[in-house]
Fold this protein.
Amino acid sequence: MARLNSIVALRLQWEARRQLARLGWGATLGCMLLLAAAATAWQSAKLIQRQAVLHAEIAQVRKAPPVMDNGGADGARRIAAFQAYLPLHETIPEQLKTLVEVADKNGIVLARADYKPVLEDNADFMRYQLTLPVKADYANIQAFIVKAMRALPTLTLDSVTFKREQIETGDVEARLQFSLLLRKKGASK
């Protein structure tokens, strides 16, 4: 059987050389290009069929009525739970004191801070935006951010920018922007 396979392989090899010599390189290249064109046409037909199926699915989804979830009682319950979770506006000094303590424990000196209240329209909560320029080791700044957000669960990190004057220096200058979410004055619990 192995001998028969080798004879067939030799025969096919001889026939291929003979046809190549008879037809020439141009005809062989043309046959190969013709085969490639046929494969491309077959693949194109498959893709066109798939595209038609996807267009039908999209049309079906567009015809379906939109599902609107107005929240209802469950939504109102979740909003009430969110607002109850927020600390009162009056606790801002304690919140800031906690932030300063976390900074001290991580080797961060808060020499300056910019802060401003931002009222949210039609909401019983507000954001207290804090901008803290700091200069320290990168690892200390990173630890401060993580520990501050753990210590103050309603503190959100809005942005961080880093700047290093020279690559040799270990300290980096960072500008940290936080938002502290609080319940407005007089908001119901």
In short: Strands lie at 114-119, 125-137, 155-163, 171-183. The chain is about 55% helix and 20% strand. Residues 35 and 148 are 66 Å apart (CA to CA).
